Amino acid sequence: MVAHIPALLTVLLALPLTVPIALIDLRRHIIPNALNGALFGLGLCVLAVQAPGGAIPVAIGLALAESALAYLLFAGLRAAYGRLRGRTGLGFGDVKLIAAAMPWIGLAQLPLMILVASLSALGALGAMRLAGHPVGMRTRLPFGPFLALGLHGAQLLRPDL
């Protein structure tokens, strides 16, 4: 049980950044680049500390590649949705947040992050509807708080934890 304490602590290290990301996105519908950058940088630092001495460059390189791939994937999805629907669905701050999460969870956990984020957002929309708020195709819901929740969910459900 004691061997798992450091891994569990890494789950908490992102909280001082994901909480403000969620709150700012809820209030202003924007995720500041500085917070996404800090989340990304801290994730790389955590990776460097956790990696064995000779594997640090490999771990950092892999995280950079995974972040770039996640960014390109979701920027492409954002663009495709915009062309198909004629409006923006996912903000660039959300795309950057997904990329910034990769050093923390890795590309293999990205589907779980998106699943947790999507299901929690759907739950929030359901709660809004039950509370009497109109919910429709034009309802705007900041996705950053749900992505932050998805990040922490994916961290907690990592197979190596």
UniProtKB/TrEMBL annotation:
What enzyme category does the UniProt record give? hydrolase
Q: Which UniProt keywords apply?
A: Hydrolase, Membrane, Transmembrane, Transmembrane helix
Q: Which Pfam families match?
A: Peptidase_A24
Prepilin type IV endopeptidase peptidase domain location:
17-122
Task: Give the EC number.
Answer: 3.4.23.43
What are the transmembrane regions?
A: 6-23, 30-49, 55-77
Query: A GO molecular-function term, please?
Result: aspartic-type endopeptidase activity
Q: What's the family? A: Belongs to the peptidase A24 family.
Q: Which PANTHER family match?
A: PREPILIN LEADER PEPTIDASE_N-METHYLTRANSFERASE-RELATED (PTHR30487:SF0), TYPE 4 PREPILIN-LIKE PROTEINS LEADER PEPTIDE-PROCESSING ENZYME (PTHR30487)
State what protein this is by name: Prepilin peptidase
Q: Which organism is it from?
A: Methylobacterium marchantiae
